Amino acid sequence: MELGFIALILLSLYPGLAWLDAASFEFTLNAPLLAGAFAGLLTGNLTLGVMVGGTLQLMALGLITYGGTSVPDFITGAIIGTVFAAQAYASAAGSMSMEAALGVGLAISIPVGMVLIQLDIARRAFNTIWFRMGVRFAEEGRYNRLTPMLYAGAASTFLSRVIPCFLVLAFGEPLVNLVLENMPYWLMNGINTAGGMLPAMGMAILMRYLPLRKHFYFLIIGFTIFAFRAVPYNVIAIALIGFCLAGIYIMVKKDMAGSLASNNGGQSNDDVEVEIDE
How distant, in Å, are the alpha carbons of 89, 96, 180 from that of 184? Predict the structure, then answer.
């Protein structure tokens, strides 16, 4: 399966447009899940695109660009990984399972996202040129030249994502096929295992920023609903959810007692609880 010219252009433009969206309108284009779905739609395998993009989305949950830090470019990785996974799945003509194609996509998308960290650092260093020129124009009072410097920085970032994606999609298929044909089974199996573990790591990183000590009841309810979704009337699930609902009731009751005590000028908790019961 080969990409058409229009599909190649659209897929190459997506990473740059996703960055512009993240820096302006925030239509959530800057999400690996949507990038993978978009690539899957253009390659004729939407399911595989959602699988690749969704896995990378879970990996990126806790990765935030605080300050000037650089994180893996899983947007470009999702597009490139989905394209080559769809090509491998189509060329296999039914002899490859969807899970094996997902392993191919992750084997490509994860290294691509990691390598592009270095390109992002180079892009940030290059953009200091426009920054220094803007400072000079501001010191000279030539304020009408500041806006072009902002557009130049945005253009540099846009091209730093579009050009690598285009080069890999347009000329990288023979190289990728060569790598896949000579990749040992143990390495592919290891990548698949890591692909299954990294989403959990992303969730763990994200949970560090959540107030779980206070609201752990909701975490247990969500986990129970997901874990027992195939057996909704499981006794253990009902017991866990009942325990959490009781804990939530006690927590809400204490919060109401505390707020009433503060409104009543320091009235005792026992009196407040009597009022609540009444």
Answer: 18, 16, 9
pTM: 0.63
Q: Which of 53-57, 84-88, 226-230 is least confident?
A: 226-230
Query: What's at 126, amino acid-wise?
Result: F
pLDDT of residue 276: 45
Rounded alpha-carbon distances, angstroms, from residue 103 to 96, 126, 143, 172, 241: 11, 35, 52, 18, 36
Q: What is the pLDDT of residues 78-106, one digit of tens each?
A: 999 999 888 888 887 777 788 888 888 88
Using a 10 angstrom Cβ sphere, with 0-12 exposed, 13-18 middle and 19 or more buried, the burial of residue 134 is: buried
